[in-house]
Every structure is written in structure tokens, then in C-alpha cells.
UniProtKB/TrEMBL annotation:
Organism annotation: Aulographum hederae CBS 113979
Protein name: Knr4/Smi1-like domain-containing protein
Residue ranges constituting the Knr4/Smi1-like domain according to the UniProt record: 288-468
Superkingdom, natural source: Eukaryota
Lineage of origin: Eukaryota, Fungi, Dikarya, Ascomycota, Pezizomycotina
InterPro entries: Knr4/Smi1-like_dom, Knr4/Smi1-like_sf
A Pfam short name: SMI1_KNR4
Length: 488
């Protein structure tokens, strides 16, 4: 599941081990129903979110939804209390939600947009003829140009509503609010368009009355059916926790990853762009490692490796690139390339072990002795895969124990709030299935992507790592997806 995705996938929500992904998904999807005018659905989803994830730091979309609750006068469970606790006034919220010129222009070509007819004309010119935007990317699902255009269109729609109230003759030959919303409705998948659209109470009033739903042409029965499925899925996940995938042997998991990577539409497009048309691997498998080779590996590393990993080596001594639903994952090393971290790789050893970003960055957690600065670090680990900025590591049991002890100390600490303790319990239950299963963990797998989008993902075992890869390899990210488009 993409952390920034609002796309609904029932299986992903039920089976992902990332609490952060669940939290982000429920908020984004609530936002998407809200802008379509299905405020009752959004309100119930946010109420569910607040009941089960009261400390989650993922608040930006929630903040803009608060303009809707102010406008309607009806708040989700727990949300008005959170707004009051924030110390922010309605006036401050209104001011913060407005789209500034800096969101539209880069510093080198910045122009201040005024809230009048001249500013409106300038926005229209920018939307259609901004020379610094690459036309190829201005309507993409990622990238700065698409983000700037989304902000410009949202600002133009907001300003058109304001000017329409003035009934000025100067607007006669300019796009109406309905025409601008029609343009927006064709690019809901574009970067930040859904996020930026509700930038004022005036806009929220129109959206709450179904203006966008009308522009898209959604069918009410389809939206209601989808909403019922969405709500049932999130309730099941929140109330019952992680749903286990059917158990499969490692041989079957590898076969699934291999087949999906060589046949998935997204993977084939990647291979074509990277390797050339018609060029894709015949297999991801390498020749298996024999018992003597595995014993020699353990002797060289001076460690007894986990059985699931040794089973993998006995089937395929390493594994090529594999598709993860969006891009390719790093290949896994053959036995001869496995290595412990070097002494000079302190950048890796000093990374905090993260099994859920949404827990370690809560404001309440930061105020305790369990703050991120004191969090257990990766320490010495074994590199089992690598390419460019992507790394795959085996975390040995002694390092895993430090992480387990840390979480269990939080859960059993009577001096911190019940909410924080329950948040920690939810985190380990999402990760391992239950506290009992968490206590049994020994070898973990960590993936680390360096660079500007640095990200760590943890897996409860090597087999779980393969299970997640097998599930993801069967998916393909649709960069033109939006819930509204499913309901036409």
C-alpha cells in the first residue's frame, strides 16, 4: 500500500502489517468521500479513526476536513476535542487553508495573486500557459509541476466562487465555477488535486452539496455500495486486527513472485523502459545452494541463520529483481555475497529500528522517556540484498530483542497514558499478529531506501518478507485511479 494513496484495496487493508498505511488510507479515503459530498461517510470513517488511532500524527488531511465540520456544524467523534486541544482558532484554520502564491510559483518566477478579477485572470493564464511547467508532467500523479497546477486550479475555483457572488460583468467571458470544477474533475488523480481542492469554507459548502459528484458524474448507488464496503473493511481491520494470509510454503511464494514479475503489466512496462522492448528475464531464480555451501556461509558469518532463509537458499541461491506493485525491489544476494555491516557503516548501524512511523512520531510519545532519540537502533546486521539506494538486511535476534523489550516496556509502563500504551500494543499486533507472536520474534528483515525519500520497512521474519513480496507483486499501481472514477 502506498502511504500516500487514497485508492481503496480491501485485501491490502486487511493484510498489510503497516499501521501507518492503514491510518493514512482511512484519512485519505474519508477526505475523498467528503469532497464528493458524502459527508456522512467521511464523518463515520474519521470517528472510527479517532476511536482506534487517537494519537496518530497524520493530521494534515484531518486539519483541512475540520473546515468541513465547521461549515456543517457536525463533528466526527473525538474530532472537536482534538481541534480544541490544538489551540488553533477557526480564523487561523481558515487562513492556513488558503492557497498562497508560493504554492503555485517557484521562487524564480513568483507572482503574487490578488483576490480580485486581475488575480483571477492571472491564474487562468498560468493554468493554461505557465512556461516553467513541463506539459508532459503537469497532469501527472507525481511531481512538482502537477502539484503547482493542482494548487492553481483549486485557487482559481475558490476565487471564481468569490467573484461570482459579486455578479461582475467582467466575468462574462471568463470560466464559471462549474467550468473550472469540470476541469478539476478530470484530474482528480493528479498530484495534490484532491488535497488542495477544499481550500476554503466557501469551497467546502459547494462540495458538501455535491458539486464535484455532479461534475464527475458519479452514480449515487455505486458510491453508497462502495462506501458500505469501505466502512465494513476498515471496521474489520480496526476491531479484529491483522487478517492472516493463507499459509504457503516458501517454494510457492517464490513461484508467485517469479511469475508476477515476468507477467505483471507494470513490471513489463518497467522492463521495456529499462531494458528495451521485448526484453525481460526468463526467470528470477538462481541455482540452489547445497547443504555444504549453506554450512560454509554460516561458518563464515559465525552465525546460525534462520531456517526460512536457509530454505530459500536451498531453492534459489539469491533472487533477481522482483516487482513490488510500483517499482522493482533490490535483488537478493547469493550466499557468497552475504556480509555483516562493516565497522565504518555507522550510518546504517545508528538508524532507529522502525516498525511503524505513525507510532514513533506521535506528540505524546515524544514527551516520554521513549522518544525517538532513545529508540533502539539497527546495530550490526547482515546485508542479504542491495542495489543502488535499496538495501535488504537480516536483523539478528539480539538486536530484535532490544526492540521487543522496548515496546513491551512501553505497554507495561503504568506511568504513561493508557492511550500511548494501547497505541504501542496496536503497533506490535499489526506487525506480528498479537503480543504473544511479537514476543516470539527472533530474526527480522529490514529494508532501507536511502536518499531524499529515506524509508525503513520491517518484516516479522524472512518468510513474512516473501509473503509481502508475493502479495505486492500481483498488484499494479494505477496512477489515474480515484474513488470517484470507480463510481461513474
Amino acid at each position: 500500500m502506498s502511504p500516500s494513496s487514497s485508492s481503496f484495496d480491501r485485501d491490502d487493508i486487511l493484510h498489510t502489517r503497516s499501521g501507518q498505511a492503514i491510518n493514512q488510507s482511512i484519512v485519505h479515503i474519508a477526505h475523498e468521500f467528503a469532497v464528493l459530498g458524502y459527508v456522512d461517510v467521511a464523518r463515520r470513517l474519521i470517528s472510527l479513526f479517532n476511536r482506534h488511532y487517537p494519537l496518530d500524527p497524520y493530521q494534515v488531511p484531518l486539519r483541512w476536513l475540520r473546515l468541513l465540520w465547521v461549515e456543517t456544524g457536525s463533528w466526527p467523534e473525538g474530532e472537536l476535542e482534538k481541534f480544541k486541544d490544538s489551540g488553533e482558532s477557526v480564523e487561523e484554520l481558515v487562513k492556513a487553508s488558503r492557497i498562497s502564491s508560493g504554492r503555485i510559483f517557484s521562487p524564480r518566477d513568483h507572482v503574487e495573486i490578488t483576490d480580485d478579477i486581475d488575480g483571477f485572470r492571472l491564474l487562468l493564464k498560468v493554468i493554461d500557459h505557465q512556461p516553467t511547467w513541463n506539459p508532459e508532467f503537469a497532469d501527472a500523479s507525481t511531481g512538482g509541476d502537477a502539484m503547482s497546477k493542482s494548487a492553481a486550479l483549486a485557487k482559481a475555483y475558490d476565487l471564481s466562487l468569490l467573484l461570482a457572488e459579486q455578479q461582475s460583468e467582467a466575468l462574462a467571458n471568463l470560466p464559471s465555477p462549474e467550468q473550472l470544477l469540470g476541469r478539476i474533475s478530470k484530474r482528480l488523480h493528479c498530484n495534490h488535486q484532491l488535497d488542495d481542492l477544499p481550500c476554503s469554507r466557501k469551497v467546502w459548502k459547494e462540495l458538501a452539496q455535491g458539486a464535484l459528484a455532479k461534475a464527475v458524474g458519479v452514480q449515487d448507488d455505486k458510491v453508497r455500495a462502495l462506501a458500505e464496503e469501505v466502512e465494513q473493511t476498515f471496521r474489520q481491520r480496526c476491531e479484529e486486527g491483522l487478517q492472516r494470509m493463507p499459509d504457503q510454503p516458501i517454494e510457492q511464494l517464490l513461484s508467485t513472485i517469479d511469475k508476477n514479475t515476468r507477467t505483471n503489466k507494470g513490471a513489463l512496462e518497467f522492463f521495456e523502459g529499462y531494458l528495451g522492448a521485448g526484453v525481460e528475464p526468463e526467470t528470477l531464480y538462481l541455482d540452489p545452494a547445497g547443504p555444504a555451501e549453506i554450512l560454509e556461509l554460516e561458518r563464515r558469518l559465525n552465525v546460525t541463520l534462520p531456517n526460512d532463509y536457509k530454505t530459500f537458499l536451498s531453492i534459489s541461491n539469491g533472487f533477481a529483481w522482483s516487482w513490488n506493485g510500483i517499482i522493482m525491489d533490490a535483488p537478493l544476494h547469493p550466499a557468497s555475497k552475504l556480509r555483516w555491516f562493516r565497522d565504518d557503516e555507522t550510518y546504517f548501524t545508528e538508524l532507529s529500528i522502525t516498525i511503524d512511523e505513525s507510532f514513533i512520531h506521535t506528540d505524546e510519545q515524544r514527551r516520554t522517556k521513549y522518544s525517538i532519540d532513545a529508540w533502539p537502533t539497527v546495530g550490526r546486521a547482515i546485508e542479504i540484498g542491495h542495489e543502488d539506494i535499496d538495501n535488504v538486511w537480516l536483523l539478528p535476534p539480539e538486536n530484535t530483542k532490544r526492540l521487543k523489550d522496548w515496546y513491551l516496556a512501553i505497554i507495561d509502563d503504568d506511568e504513561i497514558s493508557e492511550q500511548l500504551r494501547m497505541a504501542a500494543l496496536k503497533t506490535i499486533s499489526a506487525f506480528a499478529g498479537s503480543r504473544k507472536e511479537f514476543e516470539k520474534l527472533d530474526w527480522l528483515v529490514l529494508t532501507w531506501a536511502s536518499g531524499g525519500s529515506a524509508c525503513m520497512t520491517a518484516y516479522a521474519s524472512f518468510k513474512v518478507f516473501l509473503e509481502e513480496k508475493a502479495r505486492a507483486s500481483g498488484t499494479c499501481w494505477d496512477d489515474e485511479d480515484a474513488l470517484a472514477y470507480r463510481c461513474r
